[in-house]
Each structure stands twice: as C-alpha cells, then as structure tokens.
Design brief:
Elements: H1 10-31, H2 36-45, E1 51-52, H3 53-60, H4 64-76, E2 80-84, E3 92-96, H5 98-116, H6 124-139
Antiparallel strand pairs: 1-3, 2-3
Helix pairs in contact: 1-5, 2-3
Length: 155
C-alpha cells in the first residue's frame, strides 16, 4: 500500500482520531485522575523494563519540565518510582510500583471496555499495523525529542 501523502486530510484524520480517542477515554481517565500524558507514561512503564526520562518524554510528548512535574505527581501517588540506573549512574530509570501496576491494570481494563464498544474492532489489528508502519516511516530521519509544538496535546 502506498501512502497518499497528498491526499486531502491525512494529517487532519490522524489528529482527529488521536483527539477523539483521548476524549473517548477522558471520563475513565478523569475518574482515576489520569491525564493523557500520564496514561502514556504508565503505558510505557507497564512493560516492566524501566525507562529513562528521555525515552519517557518522547513517549508522552512532553518537554522536560512538564515531564518532571508529571513524574513528581506519579511518584507522590506511589504509582512510579525512580532509581539510578545501575549501568549508567548518571541516568534515572522509572518503573511502576506494585500499586502502579494494579492501577494500570484497573484503568486499562476500563479503557479497553470503553474501546470494545466501537464498531471497528475487526479492523483494530490492521489499523495498529498500518499506524506502526507509518510512525516508523515518519520517525526515520527525525531527531528524537523534537516533536512539533503542540504535538500530542489533544485531550
């Protein structure tokens, strides 16, 4: 499949889908006190790997000061803990706490239930594959951490 970059509205469709997705989950996220950016951070950390702040900032589409504030909030809620990287002591790694893992599972179940009501479930895997390919193609040659102003800010 060839991407129709010149097709009217591709960027608008992607932006609209992202913003409507955020709105679709807003009620559930608000019930748990979880912003879109917080959701993104928790989703990344749910893999159990531990990630440094640069990777987390890129995933959450936040500049460093915004990420610091969000991470402080997540630490204060005992959802995330930060530790010095044992391999590179200059870096800090963040991971979910046990409470954070339970929180992520509970919020995730509720969000998945909300998404399950959409009539496009049979297309979800194909859409995921296509969006992953598009994201990778767009990322090639882009400097990490240099998102366009306002990118990913939909709520």
């Amino acid at each position: 499949m060839r991407w129709r970059w010149a097709a009217p509205g591709l960027l608008q469709l992607l932006t609209r889908a992202e913003r409507l997705s955020a709105r679709r989950t807003q009620r559930v996220r608000e019930e748990f006190g979880c912003s879109v950016e917080g959701w993104r951070v928790l989703a990344l950390l749910s893999d159990g790997q531990g990630h440094n702040m640069t990777v987390i900032a890129d995933c959450a589409f936040l500049p460093p000061p915004g990420l610091t504030k969000l991470m402080d909030q997540l630490v204060d809620r005992n959802l995330v803990h930060r530790r010095t990287d044992p391999v590179d002591r200059r870096r800090i790694l963040a991971r979910l706490t046990e409470r954070g893992q339970r929180f992520w599972q509970e919020v995730g179940e509720r969000v998945r239930a909300e998404w399950a009501t959409l009539p496009v479930q049979e297309d979800a895997e194909q859409l995921h594959t296509l969006l992953a390919r598009l994201s990778q193609a767009l990322a090639d040659g882009v400097t990490p951490g240099r998102a366009a102003p306002g990118a990913g800010r939909g709520r």
